[in-house]
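Contributing new records

If you add data, match the layout below exactly. Sequence lines come first and carry their own label; structure lines follow with theirs. Keep one chain per record. Anything else will be rejected by the validation script.
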Amino acid sequence: MSRTPTGGMLLCRTGPVAARSAAQLLRVRLLLAPAGAWTVLVPEDKPWREGGNAAEVFTGWAAALAAGTDWPVLGLWWEGGRAGFALARGFRRTVAQEWDAAGRAAGEPDAMRTLAARLGLDPVLDLEELERLTRPDAAPGADGADRLHGLTALLTRTGLTLPPGLTPGEPADRLRSAARVAPDVETVQWSGWRDAVRAECDAVEAGPMGPWVRGPKARLLGAAQIAAGAPLLVWAARRRSPAWAAAGALLLVQGALSLAYDRARARD
């Protein structure tokens, strides 16, 4: 018998800090929890009740979260026995896969191949298992949610470890209850542009470029840019060279902004 509950979750292949800053821009209340090398987001409310359906809601959210990032986002959804996912990454084309209540695939022909490529899965063995999920004879009697179970099980090879109780196909209320007791869970909600910008700064500083954005290395870089830009600007003025003058001015501005940013963030 097909499952009928409606629900969904978002899987971000990044840490909680980066996922939090992106999730705030959705302007909805979400529960965020670490999921191994991924981060899982579960909505506090049921946005599909306001119109549309779960597929539209989670596909749109996945695309919005991934815009401007370099990490992929999977929006998983299920509704009335049907289920599916949408894969978004940066400004690349979002791909989707769907199964009906009988487990028959109704998605894009290249969805699984694109999923394997964008997640760095084995192009032979892992792709074969993914494509098996689109064949109805692979698991007779399985509905859409069962197909998502197979997908998340395979994604453990990419470091995904869902907290207990966060299982595709569960009713939204039960999913939310499980998320609330997940280890290191936190609530994410829109709190204005000031906090959103601060959260984005936190995400950048926590990344690989963090030491060059704030801290001793950043201050050293800013001072070096000013030290190089000032004499270059003077030399360019004497030589009447607009190109070198622009380069000197750019170095001065970048250095000044770097020092100002470091000082402002230290006061926050």
